[in-house]
Design goal:
Layout: H1 3-11, H2 15-33, H3 37-57, H4 62-69, E1 79-88, E2 91-97, E3 103-104, E4 107-109, H5 116-128, E5 130-143, E6 154-166, E7 174-180, H6 196-207, E8 214-215
Parallel strand pairs: 1-6, 5-8
Antiparallel strand pairs: 1-2, 1-4, 2-3, 2-7, 5-6
Helix pairs in contact: 2-3, 3-4
């Protein structure tokens, strides 16, 4: 088994979580389109089953899960996470997450109404203190954040960004900021926010701006 396959298997969510996500998505979409009370009750029960599966397989409370699922309205689609790959003198900008102490490229969930590239630029400024400009999509990945938010399926867009100015500054989300070579990337990485593959692809895009965009 080669390194790529081993990494894919290591990052694969457990089957029970994949099933629970799909059931919750069907329930959410079904509740949106249900045209009678009987169908609505069935889809609400599917939502309860999804929360029961996750609760039984984890330390998450079932009532808390239901409270998280109920506000999800409309057709269920993946969430979008954006990341800014910013370089200075061949070194990659990384920030340390306050919530788990892990390191990641600056970024976060895109807000409704965001232009994706501008969302990545904003997140970089807020989390690191640096003003950047997105200039290329490095990759679009099938990805999920760690913690309770990993209950929802997510896509990740990583942008190669040009450093425009600013200075290192932490935020309420970050406790440290720095630039690192590929040989001294700090550990541990922060959950699903940034994985070794994202870092490798970022350095590859820096080395060759014409390299094709990576996608899952």
């Amino acid at each position: 088994m080669d390194e790529k396959i081993e990494e894919q298997n290591a990052n694969q969510a457990p089957r029970w979580l994949l099933w629970a996500r799909e059931i919750q998505a069907i329930a959410q979409t079904g509740c949106h389109y249900a045209n009678n009370d009987f169908d609505l009750l069935r889809y609400q029960r599917l939502r309860e089953i999804a929360s029961e599966i996750i609760s039984a397989q984890s330390d998450l409370d079932g009532d808390m899960l239901l409270a998280l699922f109920r506000p999800q309205l409309g057709y269920a689609t993946p969430r979008v996470d954006v990341r800014a790959a910013v370089f200075e003198d061949g070194k990659l900008l990384m920030v340390r997450e306050r919530m788990d102490g892990g390191w990641t490229m600056p970024g976060g969930w895109a807000d409704v109404g965001d232009v994706p590239s501008q969302a990545a630029e904003r997140e970089a400024l807020e989390e690191s203190g640096y003003t950047v400009q997105a200039c290329k999509v490095i990759g679009v990945y099938d990805a999920n954040r760690s913690g309770p938010l990993e209950l929802f399926h997510a896509f990740k867009i990583v942008f190669l960004c040009k450093l425009l100015g600013g200075e290192a500054r932490t935020s309420f989300e970050t406790t440290d900021v720095g630039f690192f070579t590929p040989h001294d990337i700090p550990q541990p990485l922060s959950g699903e926010r940034t994985k070794p593959k994202h870092i490798r692809d970022a350095f590859a895009a820096l080395a060759d701006i014409n390299i094709p965009t990576v996608f899952d």
